[in-house]
Write a structure and sequence with these properties.
Helix content: over 70%
Mean pLDDT: 84
Shape: elongated
Strand content: under 5%
Oligomer: single chain
Low-confidence stretches: none
Largest sheet: none
Radius of gyration: 26 Å
Number of helices: 6
Distance between the termini: 86 Å
Number of strands: 0
Structural class: mainly alpha
């Protein structure tokens, strides 16, 4: 039911397929890692993580388009968590540049919008 000797026998019977695919897989992996390292060196880790996450998201979207599988709401939650994680990463590095409103400011703005009258209500 398997083992090392059948695997060696298969590789010796089909050397172009097995070693050719292994070489191709290694070569594409090398180029992929080189590309990510070049992104980090030129643009920083945040851009590299964003690009690789975008690539993974595109792969998932294309997988749903080409292969039928049930779409559940858990995929949406997962995507939202990824976007939240990227936002929190950017926000944590740029706190001094980004001024987000506090919850009290948001609450006051909502309640003041309810108290104000529209022009059509004052006529």
């Amino acid at each position: 039911m398997g083992g090392l000797s059948p695997a060696v026998a298969f590789c010796s019977q089909h050397p172009v397929k097995t070693y050719g695919y292994a070489f191709f897989f290694s070569l594409t992996g090398y180029f992929g890692i080189s590309f990510v390292l070049a992104l980090i060196k030129l643009f920083g880790a945040l851009v590299a993580v964003t690009v690789t996450t975008g690539r993974k998201a595109m792969t998932i979207i294309l997988s749903f388009m080409f292969f039928s599988k049930p779409f559940t709401f858990q995929y949406v939650w997962g995507g939202l968590l990824v976007i939240l994680g990227i936002f929190l990463n950017v926000y944590s590095k740029n706190k001094d540049k980004m001024q987000l409103p506090s919850l009290a400011d948001i609450r006051n703005k909502i309640f003041s919008a309810r108290k104000s009258r529209l022009l059509s209500q004052t006529v």
